[in-house]
Design a protein that fits this description.
The structure holds two protein chains of two kinds. Chain A is α/β, with parallel strands linked by helices. Helix content of chain A is 30%, strand content 20%. Chain B is of the alpha/beta class. Among the domains of chain B are: 85 residues, Alpha-helical ferredoxin (Fumarate Reductase Iron-sulfur Protein, Chain B, domain 2), CATH 1.10.1060.10; 111 residues, Rossmann fold, CATH 3.40.50. Chain B is built from 23 helices and eight strands. In chain B, α3 crosses α5 and α12 packs across α23. Classes of the chains: A alpha/beta, B alpha/beta. Chains A and B meet through β1, α6, α9, β11 and β13 of A and α1, α2, α4, α15 and α17 of B.
């Protein structure tokens, strides 16, 4: 029964990073916006930091992402958007998060910075999440783990880090924390550490375990230092040990990823975006080359969401915005044309093949307005776009933010 | 209905968002307790189900799951099986019979409220029934909503209401505890040109279902469907002011209780604000609101969120000039209906509610808004700030006071 029909200016499909950013951008244009998401996106599995560009076919390790980004082919999402649009979006992301009290930090000279992973690998990123474990060559680095915690062992991380930074002094130890030996999940530890008494217990254990000799430049801990109150938790531990504190990303699910997701879902709702979580989009009503409405499932049956413009941010093959169908890949809501690059043989032999796998570049080709060929009022963003490899190129977050912001701004502007 | 479990990718997003898993490490969590245990059961393996009872039934896992699974529904299964084997314990029986309690208590509301606020009585209830003394009992009203409704003249008597008829399912709490919510709903609907119809009704059955008792819930569901079906078949909308009742009748009567005709009834059901927002989008809602400068943080009830319809409350309250309303999005309040009254669940309900408590206290708002009565009681208990049904705000803004 199509007796439920809601009217908005812009409807965003997908609740990952690009969808959230698109919804904010459209709302800032003055549009009435609804965001429909079947579930939470891949954001909770991400590091929470925003990678811009870490490698290109021409450059195995990018130091100056803005320079390298300008050299990318026109079919790459960054090529489509242009450097200025990418800059505008990243600035907006940084300003917005800072206004919410979360300072994402970029290097003043625009170079990539190095984040420490749980195996002590150095991973390049552009905007480091608040409190992320950023290190520099030559620093004295103290890695501390929590006894009983399965997700992080500082010895493993220290060995990797020492190899990556031979000129640095890397020290590690394990500290006791009440209850942690009961194999607490990272989210349980993070929540417990918001309790002042528990946080003090960790600070106390750390102060007792502080390495002798030269004062370390930075203390790195597993990324479990609080949820909503993360800034307060980090500050109090930093004060207690008398040095900077950084958080090492763990295997997913990720607490910094959860914080970023929470921040933006609250932000867009504070702006007045209607968020329909759990609403799977099952169909669309189109006239000629325009989308009139999409259908979302509610408890009492389908609801139609009409709008002047639509943003499709439903994710790629992992996020199920694109789905395998026989020997090809389809976009299930609108049936948009997909550039499928996964023919047999397109996967390289090695799992971590240096140049990446061709099938990863599968996506929807668009024009500079992020519209698929022949469509007027639908804008694509994030992992659905074709022509890039977020894993090999280290550009997933940057493409999500830049294309999301652009798609949302265009949709918001067009719908009014 | 067989719920899918093999599509679980073990991405653990549900664990990050589960309000119970965050604060209680005894709870196996939605991923393991839902699809994980179901896999074991399907393979004929024994499963330790002792801590699954900590699940609040908030169904956060069901809205965050990127694969569309229903972990809470799977977790609920062993509870149902246990009650089928052993019956409902005395305390659960008492807490689940909101309708029966309301009928008797509201006869002597003053006396009931007085007695239920006496510390020695609460201490005795805690000892004998394991009903916590730390949570105030909701107050019964003098006179029910239904009595008020039947004692007033129908303003559309002998006339056709310009926008037709609307059927109202008020639920137990509106009838016995907050009849003002019902009176204001009637006033707002009539102001917008609707005639309100009030068929006989019983408790929706959610408190029974939440405690695992389906047999009696099915009896009540059949009664309610029989009352509502003739209206649904005429195409009349059925509106609710309690989101738990609406979830139950929209969805659970058909899917869990499998009552004949429930699908037709469910498809005609609307939350009041869902209904009003649809009227607004169709150009039929009056917007003659008085200016009113106020901050109104909204708590989206979990049972409203799992209906996947967004936050029509926020959309409508933002139409009132001067009102700034937004969804706090601070998770489950922790009360979960009757759960928060149970002695052994009280601490859990308060630690679950802490995120919401902090979010409310961080605002300057003098009152909060939510469309579930159990959430409002918990929010008041957590913050000592009043919490109102959104229809109250609309009713004030229309100048119907």
């Amino acid at each position: 029964m199509a007796n439920r029909s809601q009217r908005f200016d812009v409807v965003v499909i997908g609740g990952g990073l690009s969808g959230l950013v698109a919804a904010a951008a459209a709302r800032l244009q003055g549009a009435e916006v609804a965001l429909l998401a079947e579930g939470r996106g891949m954001l909770e599995l991400s590091s929470g930091s925003i990678d811009l560009l870490a490698a290109t076919p021409a450059e195995a390790s990018v130091q100056h992402p803005w320079d390298s980004l300008a050299e990318l082919p026109a079919a790459h999402p960054y090529g489509l958007l242009g450097v200025d649009a990418v800059r505008t979006a990243l600035d907006a992301f940084q300003t917005t998060t800072a206004q919410m009290g979360h300072t994402y930090r970029a290097e003043p000279d625009g170079t990539n910075q190095a984040l420490v992973t749980a195996i002590g690998h150095l991973r390049p990123t552009y905007l480091a999440a608040p409190g992320a474990a950023v290190v520099r060559a030559g620093q004295t680095i103290w890695l501390a783990g929590i006894k009983g915690m399965r997700e992080f062992h500082p010895g493993v991380a220290a060995a990797g880090l020492q190899a990556a930074l031979p000129g640095s002094q890397v020290i590690w130890n394990l500290v006791d924390l009440p209850q942690a030996s009961a194999h607490l999940h990272p989210v349980q530890l993070a929540r417990l550490l918001e309790e002042p008494a528990y946080r003090d217990a960790l600070a106390h254990s750390l102060a007792a375990a502080r390495p002798q000799g030269r004062t370390p430049d930075v203390l790195l801990l597993p990324a479990v230092l609080g949820l909503d109150a993360a800034a307060a938790v980090r500050t109090s531990i930093s004060t207690a040990v008398g040095m900077a504190v950084g958080e090492v990303s763990l295997l997913s699910p990720s607490i910094p990823g959860l914080r970023l997701a929470t921040l933006w879902t609250r932000h867009i709702q504070r702006l007045g975006v209607t968020m329909c979580l759990g609403a799977k989009v099952t169909g669309a009503r189109c006239e000629a080359n325009r989308v009139v409405a999409v259908t979302g499932q509610t408890a009492a049956g389908p609801t139609e969401y009409r709008a002047g413009a639509f943003v499709l941010a439903a994710g790629g093959l992992l996020g199920q915005g694109l789905v395998p169908h026989g020997r090809t890949v389809v976009e299930p809501i609108f049936g948009l044309p997909v550039d499928f690059t996964g023919e047999p043989g397109a996967a390289e032999g090695a799992l971590l093949a240096p140049g990446g796998h061709k099938f990863v570049r599968t996506g929807i080709p668009t024009d500079a307005g992020l519209r698929p060929d022949g469509w007027r009022n639908i804008h694509i963003c994030g992992r659905m776009l074709s022509g890039y490899d977020p894993y090999a190129e280290g550009c997933g977050g940057g493409v999500a933010v830049a294309s999301g912001w652009r798609a949302g701004s265009l949709a918001g502007g067009a719908a009014l | 209905m067989i719920e899918r479990y093999d599509a679980c990718l073990k991405c653990s997003i549900c664990e990050l968002h589960c309000p119970v898993f965050r604060v209680d490490s005894r709870f196996p969590g939605p991923k393991n307790g839902g699809p994980g245990y179901e896999r074991l059961r399907a393979a004929g393996k024994a499963v330790d189900e002792s801590y699954l009872d900590l699940c609040l039934g908030c169904r956060t896992c069901e809205v965050v799951c990127p694969s569309g699974l229903k972990p809470a529904t799977l977790i609920h299964k062993p509870k149902i099986a246990k009650v089928r084997r052993k019956g409902l314990p005395a305390r659960e029986w008492l807490l689940a019979h909101t309708d029966l309690l309301g009928q008797s208590a509201s006869l002597m509301a003053g006396l009931t409220n007085g007695v239920l606020s006496l510390p020695p009585i609460r201490a005795a209830m805690e000892k004998s029934l394991q009903i916590t003394r730390r949570r105030p009992m909701p107050k019964y009203a003098q006179g029910t909503f239904r009595a008020w409704f039947s004692g007033r003249p129908n303003p559309w008597q002998g006339k056709q209401a310009p926008n037709g008829k609307v059927v109202y399912f008020h639920g137990c709490s509106t009838n016995y505890m907050t009849p003002d919510t019902g009176k204001q709903t009637v006033a707002v609907l009539e102001h917008n040109g609707f005639e309100v119809v009030l068929p006989p009704q019983r408790c929706c059955g959610l408190p029974l279902m939440g405690n695992g008792e389906l047999k009696e819930a099915r009896r009540w569901a059949k009664y309610n469907v029989a009352q509502l079906l003739p209206y649904a078949e005429q195409g009349l909308p059925i509106v609710f002011t309690s989101t738990s009742c609406s979830l139950t009748i929209k969805q659970e009567y058909e899917h869990l209780l499998k009552v004949d005709g429930a699908g037709i009834v469910g498809s005609q059901c609307y939350d009041l604000f869902e209904f009003l927002a649809l009227q607004h989008d169709a150009g039929r809602l009056r917007t003659d609101f008085k200016q009113s400068e106020q901050e109104l943080p909204y708590h989206q009830p979990c049972h409203q969120r799992v209906q996947n319809m967004g936050t029509p409350v926020v959309r409508l309250l933002r139409l009132i000039p001067g009102v700034n309303s937004w969804n706090l999005d601070a998770g489950c309040c922790g009360a979960s209906g009757t759960h928060g009254f149970k002695l052994e669940k009280y601490d859990l309900s308060m630690s679950v509610g802490k995120t919401l408590q902090d979010a409310i206290l961080a605002t300057d708002a003098v009152r909060t808004v939510s469309d579930c009565e159990a959430c409002r009681w918990q929010m008041e208990h957590l913050t000592a700030r009043p919490s109102v049904h959104p229809v109250t705000v609309l009713w004030e803004a229309y100048g119907l006071r």
